[in-house]
Amino acid sequence: MARIVIIGGSFGGLTTAFELKRLLGKKAEITLLCDQDKFVFIPSLPWVAMGWRSAEDITLPLMPILERKGITFIHEEAKGVDADSSKVMTETREILYDYLIIATGPYLAFEEVPGLGPEKGHTECIFTLEQAERARKACDKFLEAPGPIVIGSVQGVSCFGPPYEYAFEIDTELRRRKIRHKVPITFVTSEPYIGHFGIGGLGISRRWMEDEFSNRDIKVITNTAVEEIAPDEVRLKNGTKIPFKLAMFAPAMKGVPAVAHLGNPRGFIPVDEHMRHKTHRNIFTVGVAIAILPPEQTPVPIGVPKTGYMTVRMAKTAAHAIAAEISGGVPPKPYEMDVICIMDMGKTAGYMRAKPLLPPRQETTLKKTIFAKWMKIGFERYFLWKMKHGLSKLP
Ligand SMILES: Cc1cc2nc3c(=O)[nH]c(=O)nc-3n(C[C@H](O)[C@H](O)[C@H](O)COP(=O)(O)OP(=O)(O)OC[C@H]3O[C@@H](n4cnc5c(N)ncnc54)[C@H](O)[C@@H]3O)c2cc1C
Question: Could you tell me which residues are beta bridge partners of residue 72?
């Protein structure tokens, strides 16, 4: 029986675990290791920060949903991977594997900008449930005595969507409370232009975002790096200083320490078209943990986003490749990176599709419509239901 170990219990890890179980049944012993005991539907974290969702609305306990399917769950952090002897180390044990799937997501590198981040710095973040809940409290306090808000992405960021969503949502919330005129909002980004999103733009995304931010009276500063964050002021590398009473910034990402040695200098892991490690052939990596080369060199360095949709596609590809190898079947079609994403814009949303992910592209779609908002809400409910029942075969 093949021993398969998966590190990470989110979009990538859960999907791979359920798919492998479905495809291999008793031919494999599957163990999922995660430092969290619940699945968090991360795309809804901006709504948690706005008070539009609670933690209970968007989480699932991992133990029952995995064990029901015959998958062993270990609630522990992987401390390291010894690829030569095929084992994962935790504080309490060593776990041997025939195949390893790394789905560990990002390490959030707040320390790369002095004063950045909620723990040791002065900015909020919405990338984890704890951060989003904290950001919500900070927002409630801010509303008692409003002032300027700064939102943005520092140098090295690859996940650009959340600051855009947060900007549109807080603008919507302030208008709903009829206090928008008391709050100057500045959007600061390392992208060369607004609507670049780390993927070289998407159709008319630049004009679209410029119009959208102008209509909402949000000042935009692009192509910029942040020098440091003081308690009440963002200091840019070009000398500009922007005061704030509330700031929310996306940090740069790296690979998590336990697996970073298997990757590039930033700890992201290069993979082939079946998500297989280029040197260690029994290791696969999916989701945010993989390395993708940016489409172009930008004046301020930035990375390429890896979305939930992409992560699920990668997880299915890896699972089918492993299952084919164990069962002697035909390997799956390689996953050619593409993306579908819905950006919340407050009362409405933007539907985006790019195929392939990076230019030049065969297909591009951009639409702002209320239907996209309903799709986004529907997708949250659908995905949580799908994971709760382990129905990874569904799209
Ligand atoms: C705020 C926000 C909003 C987003 N919105 C969207 C959206 O609208 N649509 C979309 O498609 N995508 C969206 N994304 C991107 C999407 O969330 C990611 O693509 C997806 O979460 C990646 O899944 P993953 O499994 O690779 O990593 P993650 O979801 O980051 O999960 C990694 C898992 O590994 C665990 N882990 C890490 N290190 C260890 C270790 N050493 N040992 C054990 N376990 C470990 C973590 O606890 C976690 O469970 C958003 C991202 C953010 C941050």
Answer: 31
